[in-house]
Design brief:
It contains 5 helices and 10 strands, in the order βαβββαββαββαββα. The chain is of the alpha/beta class. The protein starts with 15 loop residues before the first strand and ends with a helix.
Amino acid sequence: MKTFHNEAQAGQIAKTVLMPGDPLRAAYIAENYLEDASCYNQVRGMYGYTGFYKGQQVSVQGSGMGIPSMGIYAYELFRYYDVQRIIRIGTAGAVHQKVNVGDLIFAMGCCTNSHFAAQYHLPGTFAPIADFSLLSNAAAYAKAHELRFHVGNVFSSDVFYEDQAGEKGIWAKMGVLVQEMETLSLYCTAARADRQALGILTAGSSIHSDKALTNEQREKNLDSMIRCALELAVLS
């Protein structure tokens, strides 16, 4: 079934989808990590591919930038293509001092300045959380491969360029690890659809340092994140 944003036919998308924000990263993953990968979507340049990793069918689909964009693609994948789990793989900016550039972050929960969850008309504030089985398997993988990682809260923001400098850092006093822009809508959409979701992030920069991942470091560190997500797909 085609949607406004996805031209895939029924059966072309796997039950597990990896979702980087950048559609070109989706293409990179398909070309370098999957076997027999084929492109199922090019609408709006938001590439989607399905292939095989260790014999398991896996799809990789760009989400675009921001909470609304992720919300659109995740909703359509869950509702119209019967996807069972989405694993977000992306970069984030560290706001907590204990997070170093290059570290992996597994988003156990998600704070936000977005009103995305208002659509559900709940009599309170919804707390979006990761699927426990995906989260626990991700942490086990990171430990087994001696990767530096953190598990905790992330901050999903509607704002990249803040009007008042320093606002991002305020979240650190509550233990929030990084700021990013997509996990909130993924977790809300998964909860509403009764499906699984996990955000896996790599700290590409930090508000506490001028250091940022070089191109060489990004390749190495993003490889760890991508392989972790692919291994979760095999276990699912």
